[in-house]
Specification:
91 residues; 38% helix; two-stranded antiparallel sheet; Arc Repressor Mutant, subunit A; three-stranded antiparallel beta sheet; globular; single chain
Length: 91
């Protein structure tokens, strides 16, 4: 199933942020790790399984007000779909 405005993205079981010093942008997954670039961690922190994708986008728009909403939506959807393909996120 694809990502829709009402999807509730969240980290999959067994995935978590690294707590090691200097590793704030590392996501630990069962198969290894993923380095989170740019706003990656912020996006994933908002994907708590409670917020809808639409709510995640609204929150990101307040964090990045200069970015057009269409660009935030396109980039975030693409990012989350790539992470889903790697087994880190589910919708």
């Amino acid at each position: 199933m694809g990502l829709s405005p009402e999807s509730r993205p969240q980290l999959r079981a067994g995935c978590r942020f690294s707590e090691g010093p200097g590793q704030e942008h590392v996501l630990l997954i069962p198969e290894g790790l993923i380095n989170l670039a740019g706003p990656g961690r912020k996006i994933l922190e908002l994907c708590d399984g409670q917020r809808t994708f639409k709510q995640v986008l609204a929150a990101l728009q307040t964090v990045y007000p200069a970015a057009p909403l269409a660009q935030i939506e396109r980039d975030t959807a693409s990012y989350l779909e790539r992470l889903r393909d790697r087994g880190a996120v589910e919708f």
